[in-house]
Amino acid sequence: MMIYLGIESTAHTLGAGIVDGEKIIANEKDSYKPPEGGIVPAEAAEHHRKVGRDIVNRALEAAGLTEEDVDVIGYAAGPGLPPCLVQGKKIAEEIAGRRPVLGVNHCIAHIEIGKKASGFRDPLTVYVSGGNTQIIALSKGRYRVFGETLDIGLGNAIDKLARHLGLSMPGGPKIEALARQGKRYYPLPYTVKGMDLAFSGILTAAKKAEASKEDIAFSFQETCFAMLAEVAERALAHTQKTEVLLTGGVAANKRLAEIIRGMAEEHGAVFSVPEAQYCGDNGAMIAWLTKLVHESGAEAAADIRPRWRTDAVEVRW
Ligand code: ATP
Ligand code: FE2
Questions:
Q1: For position 180, what pLDDT does the model report?
Q2: What's the CA gap between 245 and 270, in Å, rounded?
Q3: Phi, psi at residue 65, to the nearest 5°?
């Protein structure tokens, strides 16, 4: 059985995961937290450089392995912040020596770990994270993007709203907690354009809203989640998939899961969301995708690809 080590470093998180055959045997991470404001790419990269080897060692320890036991090493080649991607690649290459190093796609890793966790074979995937918001389904050998954000990712929009309300990063869980206390819906723009979404206008309106923090958080979530459900519903009707997978960092949101589950079940589809450690950025998903790519002989990136699109990869596994 081959042992795969995966390194995640595309944004705030440095993760190391290990896969042995079909089993995930380690998933360690450490995230850069900006002192204030948003992520500073050079600072995040410096964080990854500092903690990289420790996190890899922690993963090896958790798995009861040494570096020599690893057969293949994968890293997330993109999409992501270039200085962060460079660090991930460096860590992978330093450990590898003469062993194979594969650059894999971060977004596809989110999908594949979700499929592994749920046992789904061919889901419609609602992938919602800080930087990305996409409705994806496999069609003719590629993960096609049926709808996506035209401006910022929903997670980033939520984080920006959180900062505006005086909450620290990451804002997602805090906005979720506030929203649970919200009582009155404050009208916000609803911006679905064809199959695509836009969040920055809603964010601007929410910042100007004359309402309590709780009601703003509640209204923001309800609006954005309803938009996502609408686009996902149309994609589900079009693709006729029978499984709906919610993944990415924002998938940890219980209210979002409830809304997407309701939509899926109305259409007779089954719904799943992975446990939190596999929703947000993590090394296990990179290790798992590295295995799929390696075993199938699919193309891997030889260098970082900061704007690597989900639908640019031929799915051979
Ligand atoms: P990607 O590179 O895929 O865009 P990312 O760098 O944004 O990923 P993730 O860990 O996938 O990293 O997602 C982080 C985002 O998830 C943050 O914006 C965070 O606020 C959001 N998030 C985390 N928990 C929750 C929650 N409970 N509700 C809403 N958003 C959440
Ligand atoms: Fe991510």
A1: 98
A2: 9
A3: -125, 170
Fold of 122-277: Nucleotidyltransferase; domain 5 (3.30.420)
Question: How far from 47 is each of 77, 105, 232, CA to CA, in Å?
Answer: 18, 22, 36
Other Cβ atoms closer than 10 A to 222: 17
Q: Do domains 3-110+281-312 and 122-277 have the same CATH topology?
A: yes
Own/partner pairs, 63-66, CB within 8 angstroms, 24+ separation: 63/18, 63/20, 63/25, 63/26, 64/25, 65/3, 65/18, 65/25
Q: What is the domain partition of the chain in residue ranges? A: 3-110+281-312, 122-277
- DSSP-derived pairing of the beta strands 13-20 and 101-105: unpaired
Q: What is the pLDDT of residue 292?
A: 98
Q: Which residues of the chain have pLDDT under 70?
A: none
Which of 151, 158, 159, 222 to probe ligand 1 with, by most ligand atoms within 8 A of CB? 158
Query: 277 C-alpha to center of ligand 1: Å?
Result: 12
What is the number of the ligand closest to the CA of 131?
Answer: 1
Class of domain 3-110+281-312: alpha beta
Give this prediction's pTM. 0.94
Per-position DSSP letters for 251-288, written without gaps between them: GG-HHHHHHHHHHHHHTT-EEE---HHHHSS-HHHHHH
Q: Could you identify the residue written with the tokens 């064809």?
A: 194
Q: Is the beta carbon of 172 within 6 A of some atom in ligand 1?
A: yes
pLDDT, tens digit, 9 for 90 and up, residues 52-64: 999 999 999 999 9
Q: Which amino acid is at 19?
A: V
